[in-house]
C-alpha cells in the first residue's frame, strides 16, 4: 500500500525550497512534490490517523484536531512567507506521490487561476465583540412588606426589594439594547470602510459556543484580502475605526495565507479551501 501524504498547499515552483521551520503534522518535515508546473507541499502521515475510518474518529477529538490545525497553519505560514500559495483544507490526504500528481493535474486550471489572483496578497481577520453589562443578580428574598403608610427615616415610603430588582433589570435591559445597537452600527461601519481598503472581503458566520473562545458575543467575523505592501495601512485603518469606549471590542488577526479567498468550489475532485481556525472541523479525504 502506498504511503499517505498530507497536502498543505499548492504553489508554483520556487527556488529557496520549503523552509526548515515548516514542521508538519506529527512533527514530520514538509517537502515539495513538483509536477506539471505546480508544487504541492506535503508531509508523510500515519495511516492509523488518516485512513478514512480512523480519520472520522480523529476529527471528533478536539485536542488532536487543534494540534493538527496548528501544524497545518505552521507549514502554510512558513511557505507563504517565501512564495504565493493556495492553502488547502484541513486533513487533505493523498495516497502516495502518484495521488498528489493526480491532484495537481485535476486541479491545474483552478490552482493556477487562484495563484494568479492571490499573488502578493494576504488575509486579515477582523472580529467585533459586544460586551454588554451583565444581567443583575436574581431578585432578593422577599422582605416583610411595610405597613400602610410606613415611612423611612427620610419620610419616604419604604422601598420594596422586589421593586428595586425590577428597576435594576429595566435599566440593565435598556443598557444592553443600547450596547447591541452600538455594536451593530460599528460592525456595519467597520465592514464598509475596511472593504474599501481591500481587494476582497468575506463575511463568515459569527462564532459561538466552543468556537468563540473570547469573551463577549461575536457580532462581526470578517476576512479581508489585502496587498502585502498595504498591510500597514490596513492595520492603521482598523485602529482608527476602533472605538475606545466600553461595550465593544475589536480583534485583528493576521496576516494569514488567503484561506478565505482560495476558490476551488467548482472543481469536484480537488479539495476546497479550509479556514485557519483550528476550532473548525473539516472532513479530510484519503485515497486520491
From TrEMBL:
<dbReference type="Pfam" id="PF06386">
    <property type="entry name" value="GvpL_GvpF"/>
</dbReference>
<feature type="region of interest" description="Disordered">
    <location>
        <begin position="258"/>
        <end position="288"/>
    </location>
</feature>
<feature type="compositionally biased region" description="Low complexity">
    <location>
        <begin position="139"/>
        <end position="159"/>
    </location>
</feature>
<feature type="region of interest" description="Disordered">
    <location>
        <begin position="130"/>
        <end position="164"/>
    </location>
</feature>
<feature type="compositionally biased region" description="Basic and acidic residues">
    <location>
        <begin position="274"/>
        <end position="288"/>
    </location>
</feature>
<comment type="similarity">
    <text>Belongs to the gas vesicle GvpF/GvpL family.</text>
</comment>
<protein>
    <submittedName>
        <fullName>GvpL/GvpF family gas vesicle protein</fullName>
    </submittedName>
</protein>
<dbReference type="InterPro" id="IPR009430">
    <property type="entry name" value="GvpL/GvpF"/>
</dbReference>
<keyword id="KW-0304">Gas vesicle</keyword>
